[in-house]
Structures are given as C-alpha cells and as structure tokens.
Amino acid sequence: MKQSTQNYLKAMVALCGPESFRRLKINEISKKLEISPAAVNDMVKKLEVEKFVTCLPYKGVTLTKKGWEIGCNMIRHHRLWESFLYTELGLSWDKVHEEAERLEHACSDEIINKIEEKLGFPKEDPHGNPIPDRNGKILYKTKYTPPI
Q: Which helix (H) or strand (E) holds 60?
C-alpha cells in the first residue's frame, strides 16, 4: 500500500476521533494534510475505488471498516514509534514526530507489537494521545481533542 494512502487514512481517523463513521468534508481533510482540496478530492475518488471510504457528493466522506482499520493501525504505528524513540532512545520532542512519521511506514505489525511489549503496553504516546490497541480500539479521554 502506498504511503500516501496510509497518510490519508491516518489523517481521516484522527479527524473522526471517537466518532468512527463521522462524515468528513474535503476541506477538513485538506487542512489537516495541508494539501489542496482538488488533490484531496482526487485521492478520495481513488480511496473509494479501493473501498477505503464512501463518498456522497456535497455530503462528505466516511471511512469504511477497512479504511478505519488501516488508518487506526497507522496511528498505532506512529504513536508507538514516538513512544519508543522518546522513552528508549531519548530523542527530543522536536524530533520524535518526524522520525516516527518515516518509521511508521517501514515496519511490520510484528515489530510494532514487539515495541509495544518492550514499552510495557503504554496507553498513551509521549504527547498524551491514546494509542490504539492491537484490535484497533482507541480509548479516548472524556474530552477528545484532535491531535495536531
């Protein structure tokens, strides 16, 4: 799967928060990814062909179960890498995000599971964001604030 597809799905899961089947507007996704609405619209069409999203013209985009699972897994990879880089390697706050962004696409679920085990099964990343479990469940705090 292309890295760009993974990034779109990850961003869409983050925007949905606890409402997994919330409709997203193209402009919301565009702002989150800092990409033009036209480019987002083109990608959404591709994601729909792959059955990662359903799109209703002028109504919005909804993640399918398949899209949610992949996006959630990418968030899991990212947040566990951030935790590992910060806790185990002592990387500074200003570097963990960009390094995790690269590493999240480069490893298997098996490696991520080993990292999670090594870290003692953390519930949150160093920024305080919830880490999805192996089944894709995210335990949000009572008041959800979308991650940056």
A: strand 60-63
